[in-house]
Amino acid sequence: MHSRFSDRWVTAVLAVVAWTMVAMPVALAEYQPARSAPSSRGGVTDRVIVGFRTDTLADAAAMHAEISALSGRVNLPLRAVDRLGDGLAVVRLAMPATVSNVEAALSSLRSDPQVAFAEPDRRRYAHAVPNDPLYAGQWYLRAAQASALRAESAWDSSAGSAGIIVAVLDTGIRYEHPDLERAASGGRLLPGYDFVSADSDGKFTSANDGDGRDADASDPGDWVTTSEAALPIFDDNCEAQDESSWHGTRVAGLIGARSNNSAGIAGLTWRPWILPVRVLGKCGGYDSDILAGMRWAGGLGVTGVPANPNPARILNLSLGSEDRCPASYQAVIDELVRSGVVIVASAGNESGPVAAPASCQGVVSVVALRHAGTKVGFSSLGANATIGAPGGNCVNTGANEPCLYSIDTTTNLGVTVPGAHGYTDQFNFNVGTSFSAPLVAGVAALMVSVNATLPSAEITERLRAGARAYPAVSGIPVCRNPSNTNDRQTAECACTSAACGAGMVDAVGALEQARRPLAVIVAPASVAAGQNATLQANASTASCGRNLQAYAWTVLATGSGGALVAGANTASATVLPPTSGTLQLQLTVTDNQGARDTALVNVTATTASSDSPQVVAGSACPNELSFAPPVTTPPSAPTAPGAEGSGGGGGAMDPWFLLVLGGALLWRAAHRRGVFE
Predict the structure, then answer these.
(1) Helices (H) and strands (E) in the chain — how many of each?
(2) pLDDT for 94-141, tens place per residue?
(3) 2, 177, 247, 371: which one is catalytic?
(4) Identified catalytic residue from 46, 132, 170, 591
(5) Which in 28, 301, 332, 471 has the greatest CB count within 10 A?
(6) pTM for the whole thing?
(7) 434 given a catalytic annotation
């Protein structure tokens, strides 16, 4: 469902003022955080903090004497720098500060019996905060509210890789928006494709661009006239609306608006590319077009359409309808997941069970949360939910008051056809599960940026593992799993993991999980009782910038006569299969930062099987992609200068809010029609 609320006079004035203040030339280069080194890493330093086991540094003279003695014991040229307290000093290595020299010196210092610890005296930096002027309103990225993603702390670790592509399957995009722009012009947007085909009458009313599938993914607008809504090509749920949503532009801005460029807002990712795939037009879009767009976006073939030269690793689907997962969607999703594609979809805005395709197996289904971490009234929920993310909510007390927790993002200010470029805000507000999903898709892009070998299912599990628990609240009902489509929870409720997914998405926790290694066991196709079998772990991988340091095989069950024969601490274990029962072993792999992952393998007298996933082919560090060559710019649709801003992006409000602000235009989903979520 997609709802809009706006006071046109207020919106128009504020939109013009906001655009005048923020519209400025933007640089054509991608930016990294000014200081992006995480606090746990840093450059090579010749300074070391030494902690002694006894408090022997009573004064500067004692410190110099102790450092001189330590220098002799470990045979290192050390120079005292400062006394930090009893038993704590800073020393300098009087040698070239190379990686090998520093690592060897630290090892020698730590081996001395008088030294409790020795640590590099690294530099620390202010947390990465973008200089985009509207960032102050992006509460959902910061740590001030319960459900916020903690993006600032995550950016210290990674702002994403230019080797990752995120596809936005939606209404298309306004390529000229200065906070998005084409990649060939220094922006974030790849050419994409338009999959909205002809209607059943052979015309292009839904497409609204005069033709069918082509290489122009621009959004011409999706307003619906009264006469169009009554056409036989549309179902009874198609209602007239006098404003275009610019939905795809809003979604894309959340994932990857150009960040740290002194203009507009900040995207959750700063470097990955966005692939616009147009699958929705007036009154939604056909399943067949959406499915074709999904296949193409993920690198699978589509008849009659050129192959996608830049397949996406992550697909965002802020669309759906209230029914069970269709078999056609499940088939395409299964194929994409097998190829390593992560699919993120909005749970829906009907307050009932999770909508399709978010309800399909293998999809990351996103529930919308209020700023306080509770479920916002409009959001769907249930057993198919994967995780919760900010979806925007308004805590207004009167008409024409601002929506305090709007999800601010990029948009177009045209009413029907494209007009000036701008941003949503507290008056031209933006709420809905449509905008929860791209926040999770952005976090997934950060995860793949640091560990591209993780398969789709592993990304999902690590998203869940890195989530924060829902807050404990009192005075409101606890969310329940809807029993059917008529079982709706239209008011705020306290989330549980059973109803809203594993927890609140957390960019910091997700990155920590992504950086863990991946344990992979390759078992023989068959085994024979009484004959040794070999289990291999050398397909296991470490995340970008790390390496595996240790392997450990642990016997959990032996069956009858089963045993670990050799290789308990190597990448290759030799086992004797049991004559009956099951020999079960656990593999633990550890990287050079101490992070671990485990996998299980079961061996019987005739079989061997493991629960470990298969890695995605390639390096853990994605190969950075460049799109500098110029591309042909498709013609722009007519513009309407001075048009008012459109209303919020997707979501039925709580009942009291409807009474205050007026009726919503509801696009209820019907069978075989995709709608905004």
Answers:
(1) 13, 23
(2) 998 888 888 899 999 999 999 988 888 766 544 556 788 899 899 999
(3) 247
(4) 170
(5) 332
(6) 0.78
(7) yes
